[in-house]
Write a structure and sequence with these properties.
1 helix; 13% helix; Lipoprotein; signal
């Protein structure tokens, strides 16, 4: 029991020491998280995770577009398998990619959902 408490305290301290930012949000069918990750070769990076949380049996013609002053990334997948979860890494155009709202548009199965992520 004492070991479990020590591990828990260490985990809390480690997670609390991170200065990396994150924004997340949900729509009816999608869960999205955009996270600043440690720089690689002195280059700022953000990682976007998109997860399907809807009830449909299949996804066709998946498209997404993530846009802000600092981030611009898009992608497609004609027939992704379920459960669908994708992660995309990109270089932001500024050192503070979360200073302005991030707009996300997702299209699939002739549907569109949009959300704005901000701190």
């Amino acid at each position: 029991m004492k070991l479990c408490m020590i591990i828990l305290v260490i985990a809390i301290l480690i997670s609390g020491c991170s200065n990396y930012q994150e924004v997340s949000g949900n729509t009816k069918n999608w869960s999205v998280k955009v996270t600043e990750i440690p720089p690689q070769e002195n280059t700022e990076m953000v990682q976007t995770t998109i997860q399907y949380i809807g009830k449909e049996d299949s996804i066709n013609d998946f498209k997404f577009k993530l846009v802000s002053d600092a981030i611009s990334v898009s992608g497609t997948d004609s027939a992704p398998s379920l459960p669908f979860n994708t992660t995309i890494s990109t270089n932001p155009k500024t050192s503070d990619p979360f200073s302005k709202p991030i707009k996300l548009t997702i299209e699939w199965n002739n549907q569109i959902e949009e959300m704005t992520l901000q701190q």
